[in-house]
Amino acid sequence: MTHSATQTLVTLVAVFLLTACASGPENNPTARVNIKQIDVQLEKNVPHKKSDALFHFYKTWHKTPYRYGGNSRKGVDCSGFVKIAFSQLFHQSIPRTTHLQSHIGTQIDYEDRQYGDLVFFKTGYNMLHVGFYLEDNSFMHASSSKGVIISRLDSPYWADTFWQIRRVN
Question: Which of the residues are catalytic?
Fold first, then answer.
């Protein structure tokens, strides 16, 4: 392989890796909303089940910074956050990538969503995002701009990019 072909291949791989789990309009120039339209949830306004293990997991990871490919409290991406939660809370191994996670379990109608279901978004061309549905249209996820947070499904950005809900037993 020539040096030029190698450089092109490396560049294409880098572009793919940087866009594979983007989670907000700051990474998607074609998004139809301004980043200021993405809601910022204050913890006191977020409905939750305090006794639930998923909520306690969120409390531990809240504000962990986003890092593509990350899988620790030093930095985590959306699919890594979901994979770690499944491992620690449910003692279940699931795939590492958002694409593969979007094929596990059973697809659920939006009206039938429940606490703990996986919510998926198409945030751009070949870009997927995943989080855990909580309740009252809220979900927790690793945002590329704010780290691990809780957002609302009915905010303009997330409502516009919503794709599917899956239940993993």
Answer: 78, 129, 141
DSSP 50: T
Helices and strands: H and E segment counts in the chain? 5, 8
The CATH code of domain 21-167 reads 3.90.1720.10
Question: Which of 5-14, 50-59, 127-136 has the lowest average pLDDT?
Answer: 5-14
Question: What's the token pair of residue 108?
Answer: 């659920």
What whole-number distance in Å separates Cα of residue 11 and Cα of residue 5?
Answer: 10
Q: Are 16 and 97 in contact (CB under 8 A)?
A: no
pTM: 0.73
Residue 107 in tokens: 């697809």
- The domains of the chain are located at 21-167
